[in-house]
Input
Amino acid sequence: MPTYEFRCKACDNYFEVVTSMAEKARRELEHEIVCERCGGTDVEQVFGGFSILSGASVKGSAADGGCCGGGACSCS
Ligand SMILES: [Zn+2]
Output
């Protein structure tokens, strides 16, 4: 089962939702993805940063000329 990371726009809380891709899409449409801290439903999905599918994506990719290589982005 994939893990999706979301950020609550109300309280800036990051939390994970473990669900199937189809169920995640349905819950997004129905606003059923709820912040664990404040209960708000104004959330956005966070892409990147960490991944349980590929451990390589956790580390910076500067060495291979990826996102952080040019210094143009703010990720670290
Ligand atoms: Zn919240």
The pocket of zinc ion is lined by residues 8, 10-11, 13, 35, 37-38, 40 (CB under 6 Å). The longest helix spans residues 21-29. The CA atoms of residues 62 and 69 lie 4 Å apart. The beta strands are 3-8, 14-18, 43-46.
